[in-house]
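Give me the fold.
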Amino acid sequence: MNNLAANLMLAAVWAIFFGGFNWLTMTSGFILGYGVLWLLQPLTGVQSSYFRKVWYWLKLVVLFHYELIVSSFQVIWDILTPTHRAEPALIDMPLDAKTDLGILLVTNLISLTPGTLCIDVSPDRKTLKIHAMFANDPEQVVRTLKTGMEQWVIDAVEERG
């Protein structure tokens, strides 16, 4: 049984123990099950990427929401103040994400962030065309997206060799 299935099973047992399948018991059961499985990992002798992947997914969700809030305030501030700092531009960003899921997540997360929009992925899947609202320095926009959102997605989705 893989660790995700075991973790879900432990969460379900936890919910049954507390008499209800609601989001609170399932979440607390999942967190407790994760901790139990992590503590049992040395005893089983099997090293799993599951624990690292859960951490990377949590990191992706939290940091994306942070970026969402910061960029929302940046766009709102630019709209409401009399001086506009927006310098829109089309930018080509080379892609390091290789899998379909990785490319899909990168493009959607960039498009969901206010002030940026993915327009197209090149046919060879190596370049992403982005419209950025604040592109005073296009290289800095690419650097920020690659070291931020794209790297978080690669860590969470793609297997390392």
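The chain has two domains: 3-44, 51-157.
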